[in-house]
Amino acid sequence: MTTIDPTKADFSRGEALFKAPSQFVKGVVRVTDLPQDGRAEIAFAGRSNVGKSSLINALTGQKSLARVSVTPGRTRELNFFTLGRDGQLLLVDMPGYGYARASKAEVKGWTRLIRDYLKGRSELKRLFLLIDARHGLKESDREIMTLMDEAAVSYQGVLTKADKPKSAALAAVEANVAAELAKRLAAHPQLIVTSARNGTGMPELRAAIAALAPNAVVS
Ligand code: GDP
Fold first, then answer.
1. 131 C-beta neighbours (distance < 10 Å), count
2. Count of alpha carbons within 13 Å of 153, Cβ hemisphere only?
3. Where are the alpha helices (DSSP H) in the chain?
4. Which of 8, 79, 125, 214 is such that its CA lies 20 to 30 A from the CA of 90?
5. Is 94 strand, coil or helix?
6. What is the DSSP letter of 34?
7. Confidence bin at 55 (pLDDT 50/70/90)
8. Is 53 in the pocket of ligand 1 (CB under 6 A)?
9. Hey, whose CA ends up nearest to atom 17 of ligand 1?
């Protein structure tokens, strides 16, 4: 697939993009409630506990942004936030999946919402698939990857909690995940290695997002 690699300019645009305060727009439980104004979107998804909230808060520098909208019992929402000074780019925080204690009904509801969202969302420029650097890919990750390959949704792997494993273990997980993603139709070949705890990979991730939004007003 063709890829847009971040340029040097994207690194500074990325920093500027995330300097502007993000705002919560809405939580969506049905695809009929999705924003309809055509703004470009980038999404974050991953297994529950992968570190998604921490990553979104570290990226935006807003400590409790990702939790603000979490209403108990409504964890299957897609939460939309603005990015950039003009808010013309939306960040979509998707519900965590693979939670062992989720009921069948919850899993079914989640799967349906994700499927419906991913199938026909031309606004979605890329989904960042978060993968725990200690564990690598799991079956539930592969299921969503297959969904995205089928729906031709561009996605890119992001390793989280990279401060946790020792460097040899991290390198092994990185190599395994990269090799598996390389075989996938719609996956970006480059993995971004991050830690919300020490800031590793934040500039790279911000730059990748800025590269996807060439028209966003950043300063
Ligand atoms: P979510 O369920 O995917 O939103 O995950 P959270 O952001 O709530 O994080 C789950 C757990 O992982 C929490 O205990 C976090 O403190 C921890 N965590 C998240 N990011 C990091 C990281 O970069 N490094 C380390 N060591 N722990 C992290």
1. 25
2. 29
3. 8-19, 52-60, 65-68, 104-119, 139-151, 167-182, 202-212
4. 8
5. coil
6. S
7. very high
8. yes
9. 51
| Domain boundaries, given as residue ranges, for the chain | 8-210
CATH fourth-level superfamily of 8-210: P-loop containing nucleotide triphosphate hydrolases (3.40.50.300)
Q: List 155's β-bridge partners, or say none.
A: 127, 187
CB contact at 8 A, 193 and 132: no
Q: Ligand 1: which atom is nearest the Cα of residue 56?
A: 7
74 pLDDT higher than 80: no
Atom of ligand 1 nearest to the CA of 48: 2
Residue identified by tokens 């209403």 is: 71
Convert the pLDDT of each residue in 134-183 to its tens digit: 999 999 999 999 999 999 999 999 999 999 999 999 999 999 999 999 99
Atom of ligand 1 nearest to the CA of 196: 23
CA 95 to ligand 1 centroid distance, Å: 15
In this prediction, residue 217 carries a pLDDT of 66
Angle between helices 202-212 and 52-60 in degrees, nearest 10: 80
The β-bridge partners of 171 are: none
